[in-house]
Design a protein that fits this description.
Layout lengths: L3 H43 L1
Length: 47
């Protein structure tokens, strides 16, 4: 049987890694959509 505290620590590390990846991807996605919105706005202003 594995040590429960070791298991809990593993879960905590996994959770932190997932949360970090989620925050990073969300930031990248928002940045991309913001850039896309600015591009569309510029095209509308030009046209």
């Amino acid at each position: 049987m594995a040590d429960p505290s070791l298991f809990a620590m593993g879960c905590g590390v996994s959770f932190i890694a997932l949360a970090g990846a989620y925050a990073f991807l969300r930031e990248r996605f928002l940045e991309g959509t913001r850039r896309e919105a600015q591009r569309i706005e510029r095209e509308r202003d030009d046209g």
